Every structure is written in structure tokens, then in C-alpha cells.
Amino acid sequence: MPGWDPGAFPNAGKNVREEIQDPRVHLVFGALLLIVGVGLLTLTVKSTVELRDGAHTTGIVRTHHQAADDDRLWVTFTVANDEVTYRLPSTTDRRSLDDGDRLAVVYRPDRPDTVTAERDIGGKGLFVSSGVAAVGLGLMTFAAVELRQERRRRVRTHNGTEPSGSAS
Fold it and tell me: Does 68 score more than 70 pLDDT?
């Protein structure tokens, strides 16, 4: 089977590069990142508020549970005078916890299976979603400036002079 000849398509890479450098591509990609970031941020804030206002208690960390095959952490705590055991979210840092450790947890009273460690509320999710939204906004700003400069260059080229109202 013959190999691919890069010389057969000399403009292939150039066209892709030009398209990637097009400010309109940056604008669309930035808008998508901004929408995803704001959506994630909204969900994270909602979850954070629900948990922050939930029931606070102290539980006992379990590294294994008889009904589970995974390595996730479990926590045993008391709800309405009954001892229950639920899985902690995968975002809980297991390196700092051992079997039998006491852990401050929060859960929704109507759904104790929503248990999470107090120290995990908000933090990482808020940081990541805010970062995604900020990158999207920055990319959109960069693209808007580039589009504005491109428009000004076209006006100069078309008229042969500076556009009215512009400062040199």
C-alpha cells in the first residue's frame, strides 16, 4: 500500500490553519465555552446552595462497603435515629481519609443519599466552571477586537484613507 504523499496537497494544511486563525471561529468557540461555563456554574451554584442549607452532621468514613465493588469512599451517619451508609461523591479526596475517620458531612434531609463532605461544597466545581466561562469570555473579546481591526483594515484599503472618527 503506497504511503501518503504530503506534496500532493500543498495547500491542505494552510487552509486549515487559516480557518483556525479566523476570528469568527474564535468568536463561536468562545461563545460555546461561555455557554457551557455559565451552565456548569449555574448547576454548581444551585447544588452548593442546596447542600449548604442542608442537614449537617458527622459521619464515619468507610473505605469499603459490602455491596460495592469500587474504590469509592462511603460514609456512615445517623438520619432520624437510623444509621445509614451512602457513597461519597467521586470528587472527595480519598488520599486524606482513612477507614474510621470522622468526617463532617452535609445532606439534603429529603434525600440523605445526596451526602457530601462539607469541605467539598462548591470549591472545585465553582473554580472549574468559572474558569471555563472566563476563557470563553476572553476568547470572545479577543475575537471581537480582531474582527474590529479587520473591518478597519478593509475600510482603509477600500477608501485609501483613514475611516472617519478613528484615532491614529
Answer: no
pLDDT above 60: residue 164: no
Contacts 24+ apart (CB under 8 A), 66-73: 73/97
- The three state secondary structure string of the chain is CCCCCHHHCCCHHHHHHHHHHCHHHHHHHHHHHHHHHHHHHHHHHHHHHHHHCCEEEEEEEECCCCCCCCCCCEEEEEECCEEEEEECCCCCCHHHCCCCCEEEEEEECCEEEEEEEHHHCCHHHHHHHHHHHHHHHHHHHHHHHHHHHHHHHHHHHHHCCCCCCCCC
Closest CA to 47 of 132, 108, 130: 108
Residues 6 or more apart whose Cβ sits within 8 Å of residue 53: none
In the predicted model, what is the mean pLDDT of residues 26-42? 92
